[in-house]
Structures
1.
Amino acid sequence: GAVVSQHPSWVICKSGTSVKIECRSLDFQATTMFWYRQFPKQSLMLMATSNEGSKATYEQGVEKDKFLINHASLTLSTLTVTSAHPEDSSFYICSAPIQGENTEAFFGQGTRLTVV
Amino acid sequence: GIQVEQSPPDLILQEGANSTLRCNFSDSVNNLQWFHQNPWGQLINLFYIPSGTKQNGRLSATTVATERYSLLYISSSQTTDSGVYFCAVDDYKLSFGAGTTVTVRA
């Protein structure tokens, strides 16, 4: 299957600082990537759709100024959690679909963010 | 959006047992995928199966699109099968079910 790489795998940051998470498609190009958030023992919730060359589309209730998304190239999307607070602590995971006859999504390893 | 319901929420199996996980969805879909989330959080693609039947080793899946459900079969379960199984649907912007937590005991 296709490979999506996410970095870092885990990060601990101080309250008020910003954290950047990278999502790369290693062996295919992705004009669109997706960012999800997962709380413990819960399902994945879509946060936003990252679009190469244009603004991200955010789901209802997601603060776009808090979660900055930049799709810099056809293989890289970044999520920056700005002015992080303890309530932002969560598992963040990205996905990229391979578009063709079948649109199958592949996921990165996820990033566990802890804000102290 | 499309509603996705998975059952059962939890499943405890003895090693070697077989099991069936179910995914119901509220509308027609172009994409249905099954994933296994391992203890480290990684989502492993199991099946891309908007319709029909597929098999991969001890796992198989069937989707009956006209009746809006999909089934994931685990045969001869092993402890490494433990984890959360998710069904996700839609046309490339995936909506996830709540998952089924599977625990396989030795």
2.
Amino acid sequence: GAVVSQHPSWVICKSGTSVKIECRSLDFQATTMFWYRQFPKQSLMLMATSNEGSKATYEQGVEKDKFLINHASLTLSTLTVTSAHPEDSSFYICSARVQAKGANVLTFGAGSRLTVL
Amino acid sequence: DQQVKQNSPSLSVQEGRISILNCDYTNSMFDYFLWYKKYPAEGPTFLISISSIKDKNEDGRFTVFLNKSAKHLSLHIVPSQPGDSAVYFCAASESGNTPLVFGKGTRLSVIA
């Protein structure tokens, strides 16, 4: 079945550094990918919609200059957390739409846990 | 304002019994609903979905019921198994193509 691969699965970085998270669709092409963030015991919150070959669409309250999204190919979207701070520590998950069980559903990557010291 | 609400943060059920997870929504434009299962440190995995033209969808041990007038849906798991222990997220969208809106999740513990 369709697989979304995310890398790295976890990363620890110092405050002020930038971290890049990659999201790949392994056996299908994804013109659109979605980036979510989950804080402990909270819901998955949509951060932005990544569109291949064009600018990402950010949700209200998400700083586009801080969370840089690049969707350069039909199988790769990247999220770069720039000048990371401890409050950016979270679980970041990407997803893409696939057909599964006769339905159009989001398939998620395994997630990337970011810890900013 | 949370558009998708899962009011029970946790639920414990004995193995073999039925697990019922509930979800309420406020946006009447939602017409496509999904349930996801999530283990710690992993991404959510799709379980089952239902569109607003139906009131029930069944897949093996999992059944989703939709009550549009009450803006309520539920996921039934029967019989419950220890491997079902996870956090279950309810999600909704408009017309199946807009981004999903998730509830906060319900942690299900199935006790052997």
